[in-house]
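Troubleshooting entry. Yesterday's outputs looked truncated, so today I'm pasting the complete records for two proteins to confirm everything comes through intact. If either block looks cut off, that's the bug. Protein one:
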Amino acid sequence: MRFLALLLFFLSIQINAENIKIGYIDIDKVIENSSLYMVANSKLTEEFQPRKDELLALYNNIIDLKAKLKLPNDINDDFDYHKDIKEIQTLNAKFNTGSEIWQRSLNESQYSLLVEIELRINQVVNSFATSNNYDLILYENIAFVSNEINITQEIIAEIEKL
């Protein structure tokens, strides 16, 4: 009796499986090909590039100061040497702090951008699935996807319509 029940269960799944509409989205491809992402990423670059340039100039200044640093020959040189060492240490601390703040701000902005894009993608996927009668749409960690159910390009097209 138990065997018959299992057999009927699997047969019913097989019969119903033919009516299920499944799609797959390559989410990385969707993000990479989204004009929204490209425009927002360009804005981030424009926003953060000036500070990056300042930090690189500071770093190059530190390297130049280190290259010009000479060991002291007498007591007068010793004073200047320690003054130069102190300046290098101060600039190094400023560079490290500035770099950490810049990187943290950039990471936060990139995260916010990806959250916004993810919300937009989810809205488009939900709308697309409903209007095209999909029962299941998958993305990430899929071992194999046939071209028949890969709807990545359709989702990209829908996002670009916004």
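Protein two, checking that the full record survives here as well:
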Amino acid sequence: MKFVSIVLGSKSDYEVMKSCSDTFEAFGVNYELIVSSAHRAPERTTEYMHESEKKGAQVYIAAAGMAAHLAGVLSSKTVKPIIGVPMSASALAGIDALLSTVQMPAGMPVATVAIGKAGAINSAYLAMQILALDNSELSIKLQEDRIAKAKKVEMDSLEIETIIK
């Protein structure tokens, strides 16, 4: 079974990353969620990577705050796509995590999305776009979602225009 793996650096990341798993559920995309720290549980993280690839993980999403090395560690263990979600877990409001996630050495790519909830949702969409490269059913669902979003903007605009008049 093909699926997306969501790896949280800490249990405290779950509240934000639930938006990611909720997005997958809305689209009927299989996912697995695990807590594993690059710093506090490096062996667990390495073992999980080996096991998850054997089970069918196609894309990995890594959510971590502060030093945020989780996405980089995952990238070092696989050639599958990695998407990093910086979390706001310090006095720097996630800027430290953003910089740690986006500044990867050449040859160890991590696609990095926004800090927090918007990033959690966008990580799901980016993962689905990757999966949709060879899944026409998912591609159609994503196209329909874009059309629905565009229609909502049009409806919102009409409502505002009505209020202004």
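Both blocks look complete. Sanity check on protein two: Strands lie at 3-8, 31-35, 57-65, 82-87, 111-112.
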